[in-house]
Every structure is written in structure tokens, then in C-alpha cells.
Amino acid sequence: MNPEGTDTADESPGHYCGVAAVFADTSLDVQSRLFYMLFAQQHRGQEACGIAWRADDTIQTDKHLGMVSARADSWLSGKVSSGCGIGHVRYATHGGGGLANAQPVLVHCNKGHIALAHNGNISNSAALKETLFSSGSIFQTTSDSEILLHRISCSTETGKEAVLRDALSGVEGAYSLCIMWDDELIVVRDPMGFRPLYIAEWQNAWYAASETCGLKALGPMDYREVEPGECIIIGKHGIRSFFLPSAERHARCIFELFYFARPDSNIFGQSVYLARKALGAAIARNDNITPDLVVPVPDSGTLAALGYAEEAGIPFALGLTRNHYAGRSFILPTKNERELAVRMKLHAVEDVVAGKRIVIVDDSLVRGTTSGIIVSLLKEAGAREVHLRLSSPELRWPCYYGIDIPTREELISNRLDSAGIAKLTGADSVRFLPLEVMRSCLNAPENEYCCACFDGKYPTKIS
Ligand code: AMP
């Protein structure tokens, strides 16, 4: 299905989020620009959205629980003009939700007015928080983003560059940040480069966004990737960039490519659309059956299914219809609720699937709920055989960098092998894409990409 919900633990709500930023020398309609950029990145977070903008000598915020479209009347009204703004969309979570955790987080401290929008999870947040608690820090949210603001405020350095270097040293894990610090915009990507972040100069203004689709929402701008470890400060006096100490390796998140990002985005130097098609083609090359039809699980399996069908020369059919008005199934607490939600969302098209031997393609298997129901739906609609193909390997490990993956016990691949999953779901066969095949399709070597959810090799210590 589509990206639908994230959380790693109640204490450290996932930041499976999207960020956006605008800076111009003159005042412009910052709110509407952020609206369009966030709207284009809605798939990165649906629980909450918010913007912060420079107003006179201070910063104001407007945060809201729910979708970006609900703020259209206000943010598109054109009533506020300003030279700088940042925005955020936040993913739904089991715990740690609510308006208190919505971003941007705004503080007034000894260093000035600072608003921060964060995508990613800090993997040593527990240890960093403990240190801050013991020196008397008070937190308003359960989000790990606030740690960064405390560290900025506590720094004894002077000057933004020195303070940022100091505040971020020792912070591990994923952070793609848009920060408004008084009248300047700061854009930062962690040294391992877990989450994407892009910047562009267009029509006398600077823009930043998690995904290129967020930038392109405004117009045909040329963008570049913010490099891992790069900090960019944009102000009245121009733009300057410096680098945090480099990491031993990079750790771009493989999940962004095969599942999370929007297909029209270019992430980590490659087209998300083409990457997903290549994964599908690789499944077809390694498959041992010749079905009558290839059917995607909409929308997450669509491109891999297209790649499979093209590679195998087998007809592609939308044998499952998705009801776009249905809510989120992934984060519902009980199996029963998740099952009902999948049944509300997906429907088999009898006239297309009856009597056919079908390969269904999805991007991943998590708890196994979706695929079990899909197999039943297709068989109830008369499909003769249903073979399940996944465009990723077996998910076995939780993510500490911002992707919502349940506990190890809940992950079906920790309990059952392919034959066991086939038996449980009623599929005639189940096949995953081996990790080395995925790595080679996506040109994702071990020292450049994080695949910890598949192999348990975490690029940082977790505390
Ligand atoms: P499950 O039903 O638990 O096996 O979940 C599999 C479905 O959830 C697939 O359709 C995936 O596209 C989708 N999915 C995978 N990972 C995530 C995630 N982190 N958040 C939300 N949905 C996901």
C-alpha cells in the first residue's frame, strides 16, 4: 500500500516526515509556497503539518493535526508576506502523536529565535536526553528533535557555524533539517546522509525540500542534493556552506527508494520510478513461473509489477482496485482492525482475475496482514493461482532512523520462511528479492546505503 504510518517507540516518535524551506531577500508569499511544497510531500506524513515564518523580529508558527489541504484557506490567503519560512509534515504514530509533537518546533533562547523542522530519528537520543535531563533541561515534546535545540542553546561557542558544529557533534543517526535562526535559513544533512534533502535557487529565492517532488511542485527548478554532512547557511549576505566531520561511511536509506519516496522524485541520484521498475524486472529474471497476469498491489507495488511484466513479456493488469478514501491500515493497533481496513481499501476485479494464474507484486511484507487478505480477495474473485512476489528482501529488524517497522516478533519473516508464509497467506508461492540483487539493481553498496532493516547491520550505535 502507500506510505502510511510510522513510529519506533513511544519515547522517540518516528520522524518519517518531510521538510520544506524558502528564503528570499525580499518579502514574498512564503506561506503559499510552503503549502505547495508540503502538499507535494504529503505522502511523507499525514498526522500533522506546520509552518514557521519570519514576522518582524520574531518567528511565528501555525501547526495543525491532519493534512496540509486543511490549511489551504489560511496558507493560500496571501495575507502574510515574509522573507523566510520552513515547513514540516509528520507521519502518524502509535504514541507520541498530538499537536505538541507537531513541527516546526519554535524556541526563544540565549542564541535567538530558532524554529526547526526535522526528518529522521536520532539513534542515540536516549543517551543525549539523559545528559540534558541531568543538567536540568526541560522538554516540551517527546520528540528527539528538541534535543538539537537544547544542544544549540547550551553550546558555549559563538557564531552559527561554531554553535552548529558543537551542537551536532556526538549526535548520531538521521537528521535532515531546515532551521530558521533569526533572519537566516539553515539546511543540514547528517554526515551519513540517511534521509534525502535537496536545495534549489529559483527566481531569486532559495528552496529546500526532502524530495525533489516538493521543489518541482513550485516550478521547473534545477536542484542539487545537500551532501551528507553539509550545512548551508542562507542570509542577507548570501549563501555559505561547510561540512560537519565526515562519517566513516554513508547510510542512505534503501526504504526511501523502494517504498517511501514519490515515484516522480529523484532520490540519492536516481529516479525512484526507474529504481522500482528495475527491482520488478530483477524479480522476473529470477522467477520460476510463467503467470497469465501480473497484478500490482496499488500503489506501492505498481512500478515493480510494471517492471516485472515488461521483463517477462506478460500482461500487466490492475486486478486490484484501491479505494482512495479508505484510511490507514498499517498503524491500526489490532490485527482484526488492520484486516478490516485492508478489505475496505482493496478490491479484486473479478472480470480481470477469474480463472487466471496471477503474480501479485508488492514492495514489502511486514506483518503479512495485507498479503493474506489480498490472496483471499483474488481467490474469492476466482483467480486460479496467486503467487506473491516482493520487490525487497525479508524485513527482519526494526529501524532506528525513522522508518516505522514493528518489533522483531511482529515481523513475519522472523517467524516463517517463504513456504510458511505461503501456507499462512494461502498464496501458491512466495518469493522475496535477495538483498544482494536489490543492492546491485539500486547500485547500493554496503558503505553507501543502510539496509539494517534487512541485515541488522546498523551503521550507528543505538542508545
Ligand atoms: P503488512 O500487511 O504488515 O505485511 O504490511 C505490508 C504493506 O505495508 C505493504 O503493502 C507495504 O507497502 C506497506 N508498508 C511497508 N512498510 C511500511 C511502513 N514502514 N509504513 C507503512 N506501510 C508500510
Describe the structure.
The chain has 463 residues and is an alpha+beta fold. The chain is built from 15 helices and 23 strands. A 7-stranded antiparallel sheet has the order 3-2-4-1-10-9-11. A 6-stranded antiparallel sheet has the order 5-6-7-8-12-13, covered by helices on one side. The protein has a 4-stranded parallel sheet with strand order 17-20-21-22, sandwiched between helices. Helix 8 packs across helix 9. The chain is globular and about 70 Å long.
Q: How many beta strands in the DSSP annotation?
A: 23
Helicity, in percent?
A: 25-40%
- CATH topology annotation of the largest domain: Glutamine Phosphoribosylpyrophosphate, subunit 1, domain 1
The CATH architecture of the largest domain can be given as 4-Layer Sandwich
Radius of gyration: 22 Å
Ordered list of secondary-structure elements with their pairings:
Layout (H helix, E strand, L loop, with lengths): L17 E11 L1 H11 L7 E8 L2 E8 L6 H4 L6 E9 L14 E5 L2 E8 L5 H10 L10 H10 L5 H9 L7 E6 L2 E6 L8 E5 L2 E5 L2 H5 L6 E3 L4 E6 L2 E6 L8 E2 H7 L5 E2 L2 E2 H14 L7 E4 L5 H11 L7 E3 L12 H11 E3 L1 H4 L3 E6 L6 H12 L4 E6 L27 H8 L3 E3 L3 H7 L7 E2 L1 H4 L8
Parallel strand pairs: 14-23, 17-20, 20-21, 21-22
Antiparallel strand pairs: 1-4, 1-10, 2-3, 2-4, 5-6, 6-7, 7-8, 8-12, 9-10, 9-11, 12-13, 15-16, 18-19
Helix pairs in contact: 4-5, 7-8, 8-9, 10-12
Adenosine monophosphate binds next to helix 12.
